[in-house]
Amino acid sequence: GAVVSQHPSWVICKSGTSVKIECRSLDFQATTMFWYRQFPKQSLMLMATSNEGSKATYEQGVEKDKFLINHASLTLSTLTVTSAHPEDSSFYICSARDGAERQHFGDGTRLSIL
Amino acid sequence: AQTVTQSQPEMSVQEAETVTLSCTYDTSESNYYLFWYKQPPSRQMILVIRQEAYKQQNATENRFSVNFQKAAKSFSLKISDSQLGDTAMYFCAFSHNTDKLIFGTGTRLQVFP
Questions:
Q1: Cβ-count burial of B28 within 10 angstroms (0-12 exposed, 13-18 middle, 19+ buried)?
Q2: At residue A105, does pLDDT exceed 80?
Q3: CA-based nearest distance B56→chain A, Å
Q4: Would you call A40 helix, strand, or coil by DSSP?
Q5: Is B69 an 8 Å CB contact of chain A?
Q6: What CA dihedral angle connects A48, A49, A55 and A59, to 10 degrees?
Q7: Nearest Cβ partner of B103 from A43, A102, A108?
Q8: Hey, of B100, B103, B108, which one would you mutate to test binding to chain A, going by the most A CBs within 10 A of its CB?
Q9: Strand partners, B18
Q10: B100 part of contact set with chain A, CB < 8 Å
């Protein structure tokens, strides 16, 4: 149980395009989901907290207009990287919090911007 | 602000031996949670063990156990009978009231045959 599916697992696109990453809780409802970013050989840094039915809460230094988060249902949150540039290349991981207040992670998305 | 510090960038251990990974944290909160996550080369985040701060008893999960010293704000992970599959990055993490996770910088563990 408690499976989180993240899609796509790997995406390569040209600079200037927008990329959408999906995070789904498959067998539980998640009022709250989290989006993290991980640079090579570094730790996970929280970008934002996604709340179902309301606006996301962004961490200091994260551009909300650059990283659009939508949490329209209890099982789906999306992160859209708008007008992506090479410096946005990174590993993005989501997690979903279940009813027992435990976080379950997706497998991550490797984003490469050319 | 809460911080998590892992002072060992890399560790190595021989198969079947025991290794301890260190973690310290800083917080003014009294109610919080501490975690150890494992990230293998596949980069999936796997929860190894979780400790509630209000519990004095150290958490244990099979070969994995922690030494939680609340006064010293220390939370080390002991891996007994190390296996080759334990090779991974290990992250210590803090959470206040099951809120967002704050991660340490990680320790790369290599288990040798």
A1: exposed
A2: yes
A3: 20
A4: coil
A5: no
A6: -40
A7: A43
A8: B100
A9: none
A10: yes
pLDDT for position A102: 86
Contact B100 A49 (CB under 8 A): yes
Please name the member of A34, A38, A108 whose beta carbon is closest to the beta carbon of B100: A34
The band of B56, judged by pLDDT with boundaries at 50, 70 and 90, is: confident
DSSP at B59: P
* Rounded CA separation A59/B87 (Å): 31
Q: Which of B48, B49, B56 is nearest to B88 (CA)?
A: B48
CB-based contact, B12 to chain A, within 8 Å: no
A6 or A1, higher pLDDT: A6
Task: Give whole-number Cα distances, A17 to A21, A79, A88, B72, in Å.
Answer: 13, 14, 11, 49
Do the chains contact at A45 and B103, CB–CB below 8 Å?
yes
In sequence order, the β-bridge partners of residue A60 are: none
**What pLDDT is recorded for position A40?**
86
C-alpha R_g of chain B: 13
